[in-house]
UniProtKB/TrEMBL annotation:
HAMAP family: Glu_racemase. NCBIfam families: glut_race. It comes from the Bacteria. Substrate binds at D10, S11, Y42, G43, N74, T75, T184, H185. Keywords: Cell shape, Cell wall biogenesis/degradation, Isomerase, Peptidoglycan synthesis. This is Glutamate racemase. The active site is at C73 (proton donor/acceptor), C183 (proton donor/acceptor). It comes from Lactobacillus apis. GO terms for molecular function: glutamate racemase activity. Belongs to the aspartate/glutamate racemases family. It is an enzyme of class 5 (isomerase). Pathway: Cell wall biogenesis; peptidoglycan biosynthesis. The lineage of its organism: Bacteria, Bacillati, Bacillota, Bacilli, Lactobacillales. The gene is murI.
């Protein structure tokens, strides 16, 4: 038994799509989330900047006495997780392996597409992970730097659709049957992704798999929360609380969503 909360971090509200899956998968667990909205987007920053900002969020979560930390950010997972793991005994879990496993399971024609931030795409985060697990799989990667700012600014579907259509254009002639939403912000516009892609393409949200994996891990370690419905969820942001509260209420379908500024 371990009644301490699970910590989650992201550069912004994207990580709330992961929190949402965690609450659904493990309703007894408490969570603490920090979104570094003051410094978003991470995807266009240097590796050193991303690592330093992520370290600050990890330190914040450790000060909240969390039992493990989920990097609910693909960019931070790829750039900073390994080095920060060397600095702490608290287990850190990233989204990329989970997304890769789920996509490998889903693809039938062994061709997977991944859309992510500039950093995630240029470091071949998913390609490396997927081909290490199954070298026969073809992986097509695409950077979509315009999407995160639009999502963070609560753009309407009508504003997002043309940008997304243009972004996905290079994928048009590719024959993939599975697409990984390789940035935790993208599930927020999953409907628009589906609208822009052929019907046979399955969309993978890595958060589904990471929530299952984390639950299994806690069970194996005997570290689940045993106070039924402790259900306490705390939200922190380094950015504008009003803006985050509006988006958070939508993403979590919780009108009482309330973030605290740090
Ligand atoms: N949500 C983050 C991810 O999954 C990226 C957003 C950003 O560029 O800061 O990579």
């Amino acid at each position: 038994m371990d009644n301490r909360p699970i910590g989650l971090l992201d550069s912004g509200v994207g990580g709330l799509t992961v929190v949402k899956k965690f609450i659904a998968q493990m309703p007894n667990e408490a969570t603490v989330f920090i979104g570094d909205n003051a410094h978003i987007p991470y995807g266009d920053k240097t590796k050193d900047e991303i690592t330093e900002l992520t370290r600050q969020s990890v330190e914040f979560l450790l000060s909240k006495n969390v039992k493990l930390i989920i990097f609910a950010c693909n960019t931070a997972t790829k750039v900073a997780l390994d080095s920060i793991q060397n600095e702490t005994n608290t287990k850190l879990i990233g989204v990329i392996k989970s997304g890769s496993i789920a996509a490998i399971r889903a693809t039938k024609n062994k061709h997977i597409a991944v859309v992510g931030t500039q950093m995630t795409a240029s470091l071949h985060a998913y390609k490396k992970e997927i081909t290490a697990l199954d070298p026969a799989i073809e992986v097509t990667e695409l950077a979509a730097p315009k999407l995160v700012p639009l999502i963070e600014n609560n753009a309407t579907p009508a504003d997002i659709l043309p940008v997304l259509t243009e972004t996905l254009e290079p994928l048009q002639k590719k024959s993939f049957d599975t697409l990984i939403l390789g940035c935790t912000h993208y599930p927020i516009i999953q409907k628009q992704f589906a609208q822009c892609l052929p019907n046979n393409v399955q969309l993978i949200n890595p958060a589904d798999e990471i929530a299952r994996y984390t639950e299994e891990l806690l069970q194996t370690k005997g570290a689940t929360c045993e106070r039924p419905n402790l259900g306490k969820h705390e939200y922190f942001t380094t950015g504008d609380v009003k803006k985050v509260n509006k988006l958070g209420a939508q993403i979590l379908a919780d009108p009482n969503f309330n973030a605290i500024q740090v």
